[in-house]
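Researcher: We're teaching a course module on how sequence relates to structure. For the next exercise, students receive a sequence and then see the predicted structure as tokens, so they can try to spot secondary structure elements on their own. Here is the exercise chain.
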Amino acid sequence: MQKPLIILPCSQEKLSVPARAINLYQGKGYLPLLSKSTASVGIDYDLAILSAKYGLIHANEMIEPYEQKLEKDAMEGFIKSNARKANALIRKLNPTRIITCLPKLYLNALTSMINEDNALIELTVPPAGAGIGSQRGFLASALKALEPNYLDIFFFGKTPSGRLENSVFVRIRPGTKFRPWLRNDVENAYSPVYGDVVTAEKFISDGNGQRIVDTNGNKWRTDQFKFGLDNGFSDFISTYLHDNVERYTDDYQVIEFSELESKFFETFDELAA
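Model: And here is the predicted structure for the students to work with:
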């Protein structure tokens, strides 16, 4: 599926060992904004880095650490050496648009490398002359616009014997009602303690993981959602996922929580009839 492509600059701060580009660069300017957003790399947008050494690279590309920055007198050679690779990557990703937060020199290099076909792709950049603070604000706003109005929670399907088999993401949306798990009561044989039923309003990422915000403003972890499910419904989900979702696949498999609820109550009604 087509998605936007975000292009960020390399950073001086790096790991000292080979790593994927998204992990190697340790700059505090832009990358922390990605981890704070509920928009996900590879799902809601693609990510590339414009490196002074490697040119335009995908965020997942393995690279060696280096000490090099783009200099004005090296621009012509940089463009000639990296234009073909840059255009090939953009062509492969086939983005709906390109969003950049790049220093002026890096932006000039990028636009000079892009060929006529890729130049037809919409290019969104911060206002001319924007400083790092304004650029961070621009990127934060762009990410906010890409954030999904849903949250995918990881579940396992189970065989009848209880063996974990296939995995899938169950998608919840605003309006989903759930009973949050609060804790286990140590004085009562570790019996679970639940809160009142609440309604999901939105989803956020606060640096400690993703959270469900209910209509009262309370924030709940995804495990509080999962452990709050009725045991019968939880078992039904595991069985349904085992029977109806493809096993042993690397694909990002998603099923709507509302669909599971509907199937569960259909089964419940059939048994009661």
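Model: If you want an answer key for the exercise: Helices lie at 21-24, 31-36, 75-93, 104-113, 132-146, 222-227, 231-244, 257-272. Residues 151-272 form one domain.
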